[in-house]
Amino acid sequence: MLPALHASFPAYKYLRSLTRGHQERGYAANNAEKYEDPRNAHLLVYVGAKGVTQGCIVPREMAAVNPWDSAVQGGDAAWEGLRVYRGKILSLEKHLRRLMKSAKALGFENTHTEVEIKHAIFQVLAANGMRDGAHIRLTLTRGEKCTSSMNPKFNVYGTTLIILPEWKPTEVWPATTTRCVLWCLYPIILHVLYSFSIIIFLIGSHHL
Questions:
Q1: Is residue 8 situated within a structural domain?
Q2: Which candidate, 2, 54, 185, 201, has a CA 20 to 30 Å from the CA of 131?
Q3: Quick one: 203 exposed, middle or buried, by C-beta within 10 A (0-12, 13-18, 19+)?
Q4: What is the value of pTM for the model shown?
Q5: What is the pLDDT along the chain (208 residues), one digit of tens a residue?
Q6: Do 139 and 188 lie in a common domain?
Q7: Do 149 and 123 fall within a single domain?
Q8: Residues 105 and 192 in one domain
Q9: Largest CA distance in the chain
Q10: How far apart are alpha carbons 191 and 117 in whole angstroms?
């Protein structure tokens, strides 16, 4: 196993170097400006219960989630990350289908529909004037409870939708050919490491 790990280390270091820009992002304590993009200081976000008319768009400093919400009570939520490029949301339909599947798997009831979620997304993007270079954290919680409990039977108000759009840069990656090669090699490396771990385990079991 150890030789395999040593052999894969150069590939790991190279793959890790490609994310250096992402690793260096974030708030620096000695930096007076805590936002990557100054526009993020004045964002508008969406928070709302089920129903097109139930949500509201508010400034980020006024956004709030009810303390009886399942996300607060027990982290009971599903989320997706969306990217906005040139007036379009990348793979929006796929993201929404996956979010709906997650909600169903978790047993959410009285859930926002895809139409309601789309309506809210485009509303908040328009309110922020976002058409490119933006990221959205789309969260769907089980919703507000009528009493503090982990039991989902107390969720009687339907799901809560939270949409947090931000101006956020994308990562700079190598040329397309290099990227394709890396994506091809990555599963092979994982497969080799996994195979070696099984072999080592079997050898160890045999000696025992």
A1: yes
A2: 54
A3: exposed
A4: 0.71
A5: 566 666 777 777 777 776 666 556 665 555 546 788 899 999 999 999 886 557 899 999 999 999 999 999 999 999 999 999 999 999 999 999 999 999 999 999 999 999 999 999 999 999 999 999 999 999 999 999 999 999 999 999 999 999 999 999 776 555 555 555 566 666 677 666 667 667 766 666 655 5
A6: no
A7: yes
A8: no
A9: 67
A10: 39
Instruction: Give the per-residue SS3 of 70-130.
Output: HHHHHCCEEEEEEEEECCEECCHHHHHHHHHHHHHHCCCCCCCCHHHHHHHHHHHHHHHCC
Specify if 192 maps to a domain. yes
Least Cα distance to 143 among 110, 120, 99 occurs for: 110
In whole angstroms, give the CA distance from residue 69 to residue 76: 9
Closest of 166, 164, 165, 158 to residue 52, by C-alpha: 158
Q: Residue 89: which CATH number?
A: 3.30.470.10
Give the residue numbers spanning the domain of 190.
2-18+173-207
Instruction: For residue 138, give the amino acid letter.
Output: L
* Backbone φ and ψ of 64, nearest 5°: -150, 150
Residues 88 and 106 in one domain: yes
Question: Can you say whether the dihedral through the CA atoms of 24, 26, 30, 32 is positive or negative?
Answer: positive
Total domains in the fold of the chain: 2
